[in-house]
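From the thread on structure requests for the teaching lab: each student submitted one protein with a one-line request. Submission from student K.M.:

"Model Protein kinase domain-containing protein from Brassica napus, C-alpha cells only."
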Amino acid sequence: MGWWKKKKSRAVVKEQTWDRDQWRGEKILEALIQCCDGKPNSIKFFTADQILKATQKHFCKFVFPNYIFMGNGTLDNHRMILLRKMKGRSPHPPRDICTGPPKDVAISSMVSDHKNFMKLVGCCFEFEYPVIVYYGGERQYSPVDLNKIVSWRRRMKIAEEVATALAYLHVAFPRPFVYRNMGLKNILLDKNGVAKLNDLSYCVSIPKGETHVKLTWAGKDYDYMDNDYIFNRVVSEKTDVFGFGVFMQKLLTGEENFEELCGWKNWREKNKFPKWLSSYMGEGRMGEIVDPKMVLEEEERCLMEAFLVLSERCIGLRGEVPKMVEVAKELRRSLKQGE
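Reply posted by the TA:
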C-alpha cells in the first residue's frame, strides 16, 4: 500500500517516525506564521489510525496519481473525503523557501473557501508520505484530460477558472503568492466541470516592497518556465503569467500537438530554442494548430484567435505582459461574447 506497512506495529511506527513527525509539525507552524501573517486558520491533524478507520484500511478506487477518492470513506461528521498522498516529497528539509507539504497545507487553509481550490479538512503526517485531507462531498474529481474535453467552450472555461485562481493568489493577500507549478496534472475537475487548482507546495511569497524573489533551485517542469526563471531562478508574478500562457496554448493545440508545433521536446533534448504559435497565425492557418479532437462551431474560430493573441501577450511576445487579474477578466469577457 506504500504508506502503511502492515508488518510493523503502530508502536514501532510511532517510535521510528516521532522525530520526523515533530519536524513536520514544526514546519507546519512555521509555514502558517510565514504565510498567514498571524491570522488563525482551522487545520485538523489526524492520526494514522483515524485515516485507516475512515477508509476501512483499504482504498476503494484509484482515480489519478497520488490521489485516492474514498467512495465509502467518511471522516469529520461523516462527510465524504478525498485524500492526497504526497508521494515523492523529500523527508529532508527542502531547499529554498519551498517547504513542501507544510507549505501546501498552510496555503490550502488560506484559499480553502475559494471555488477554484480544493476545500481543506486537515492532514496526517504519521505515514511515510504525508496525507492531505480534503472534503469530497458528493463530487467526483478527475484530472484534466484534453482527449475527453472536445468542447472549445469547456476548455475556455477551464482557462478562465484557472486564471481566476492564480489571480486570487496574486492579489488576495498582503503579499502575493506565486504558484510556479503550472501544468495540466495539477488541475482537477469536479462533477460539474469546475476547475480546481491543486498542489500548492511550490508556492513562494514575494516579500513586501519587492517585485520578485530569487531562489537557489528552479524546479524541473521546463515547459512552463520563462527564461528569467530557468536561467536566473528569479520568481515574480510574471512567472505564473508565462506558465499560464503556455497552458493556454496547450488547451488550444492539445498537449501532443504542442510538442510537435513548438519543438519543446527538441529544446529539452537538443538545446534547440522552441518556436511559438505566432508563426502559424497567417491567413487561414489557424486550422493547422487547433487540436483536431475538438468539435468546433464556425463562430468559435474568432474566439480562438483572440485566445491565442492573449496567450502570446502572457508569454511576452506581444508588448507588455498583463497582470493575472487582467487575463482572468479578458477570458471572462470572451466567454460572455461566445454565449
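TA comment: Residues 142-337 form a domain with the Transferase(Phosphotransferase); domain 1 fold (CATH 1.10.510.10). The longest helix spans residues 10-36.
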